[in-house]
Amino acid sequence: MKSPSTSGRHSVSRGVMALALLLILSRPGAGHPLHESLAEVEWVAWRGHFEIALGVVPEDLEEALLEATSRRVRLEDEEAEPLLAAYLEARFRVESGSGESSVVRFVGREVSHKRAWLYFELTPPPGAAGPWVLVDEVLLDVVPDQVNHVQLRSGMDRVALRFTAQERRQELPGGFAPDGLGPGWPDEPWVARAERIVRVAGLALPTLIILWLLG
């Protein structure tokens, strides 16, 4: 299923990540299929939340939902959306220094035979402070040898993290968490930045004209 709100926004990123996930899943193994996920996590300062694209093996995720809810659903089904949101909120989250957890807003999903892409946002608890910890326990409840790869993004910077059943929590490095980036220009997309420039210019121009006439 494709969500109209995410198809354009994540198209380039999704293509790069799909290639990366394909390379991960196609590596030669030791006679058994690899169970790995790939997530891109970006702290969007001007919006005040994290944006995540998560790629997983569909069958594994459906099995995880069955384990968590005792209900067999297909990822394409409409009834799967609230179940996915609840599952992600419990198993993919950001925690503050005092242990408060983020809130999930599920954006959409794309499901094919080989992979499923989940798009969602994590909003940190208001007023909370770091150090911030990323918890990735996706599929670890049903696949003991599951490996979750996470790529953190902040502007042009990238950091790769790896999560397993033995290492489910990792502290977010500076610059990739709410304490590392202030609101406004550094992390603001060029479209929003252009809109801001036009808006400011629109307000300033009448003032300049009045001052010129009065002068």
Characterization of this structure:
The chain is of the alpha+beta class and 215 residues long. It has 2 domains: 4-183, no CATH class; 184-215. It has helices at residues 4-7, 11-25, 58-69, 80-91, 190-214, and strands spanning 36-44, 49-56, 92-95, 103-111, 116-123, 133-136, 147-154, 157-163, 169-171. It is globular and about 70 Å long. Mean pLDDT is 77; it is low at 1-16, 18-32 and 181-200.
Please outline what is shown here.
This protein has 215 residues and is of the alpha+beta class. The chain has five helices and nine strands. The model is unreliable at 1-16, 18-32 and 181-200 (pLDDT under 50).
Please mark out the parts with pLDDT under 50 across 5 or more consecutive residues, or reply none. 1-16, 18-32, 181-200
Proportion of residues in helical segments:
25-40%
Give the domain tally.
2
The end-to-end distance, rounded to whole angstroms, is 62 Å
Q: What is Rg?
A: 20 Å
Largest sheet: 6 strands, mixed
Order of helices and strands: HHEEHHEEEEEEEH
Spatial strand order of the main sheet: 4-5-2-1-7-8
Average pLDDT works out at 77
Proportion of residues in extended strands: 25-35%
Structural category: alpha+beta
Total beta strands: 9
What would you call the shape? Answer: globular
User: What is the number of helices?
Assistant: 5
What are its keywords?
about 220 residues, alpha+beta, 2 domains, 6-stranded mixed sheet, 3-stranded antiparallel sheet, about 30% helix
